[in-house]
Amino acid sequence: MTQGVVPVGAGPIGTERLALLPLRAEDADAMAVVLSDPALHTFIGGSPATVEELRARYVRLVAGSPDPAVSWCNWTISAGGSPVGHVQATVVRGGDGLTAEIAWVVGTPWQGRGIAKEAARGLVRWLEGRGVRTVVAHVHPGHAASAAVAGAAGLAPTDEWHDGEVRWRWRQRVGT
């Protein structure tokens, strides 16, 4: 394997109730509906993307990072065969191995059912199985639901901040 190339690409992930399916540009139509609530942008800013904007973004994401040392992994979260949100991981090779920065969004109608927690736990386990040694997420200090998701996925808050958000971290134990 070429040094610096990240050997991780999005593959299907199954959990007890969910299927995390590699993102496709064709998912934009359904995901635009899932992500249409402006309240989803309370902590991240912006506004819901149109179908066209989302499709263009998905085309870029599916094409992958132009940097071979960075892997963009994106999934739709499917519950009962219907999309309900998405998770993502940006994987990079650093001095101590592979590190992934993760994020998640679940549409408003499906929140409060443990879907984000289950998806994030499944994602972290999947990343660990592919040699990722560190997982980080950035959580707005006022977003209790996202803090609960990060904690359920095994991440713990640090004293580090990034763009006004707390950096949460999980590290694989050496020898595991």
Give a verbal description of the structure.
The protein is an alpha+beta fold and 176 residues long. It has a single domain (13-171), classed as Gcn5-related N-acetyltransferase (GNAT) (Aminopeptidase, 3-Layer(aba) Sandwich). The chain is 25% helix and 35% strand. The chain is built from 4 helices and 8 strands, in the order E-E-H-H-E-E-E-H-E-H-E-E. The chain has helices at residues 28-34, 51-63, 115-129, 144-152; strands at 13-14, 18-22, 70-79, 82-94, 97-106, 132-139, 156-162, 165-171. The chain has an 8-stranded mixed beta sheet, sandwiched between helices. The model has no long low-confidence stretch (mean pLDDT 92).
Task: Write out key terms for the chains shown.
about 180 residues, Aminopeptidase, alpha+beta
What sort of overall outline do the alpha carbons produce when their principal axes are compared? globular
The CATH class, by name, is Alpha Beta
Largest sheet at a glance?
8 strands, mixed
Order of helices and strands: EEHHEEEHEHEE
Radius of gyration: 16 Å
Helix content: 25-40%
What is the assigned CATH homologous superfamily?
Gcn5-related N-acetyltransferase (GNAT)
Cα separation of the termini? 23 Å
Strand content: 35-45%
Overall pLDDT confidence:
92
What is the level-2 CATH architecture name?
3-Layer(aba) Sandwich
Output the CATH topology.
Aminopeptidase
Strand order of the largest sheet: 1-2-3-4-5-6-8-7
| SSE-based structural type | alpha+beta
Number of strands: 8
Number of domains: 1
How many alpha or pi helices?
4
Parts with pLDDT < 50 across at least 5 consecutive residues: none
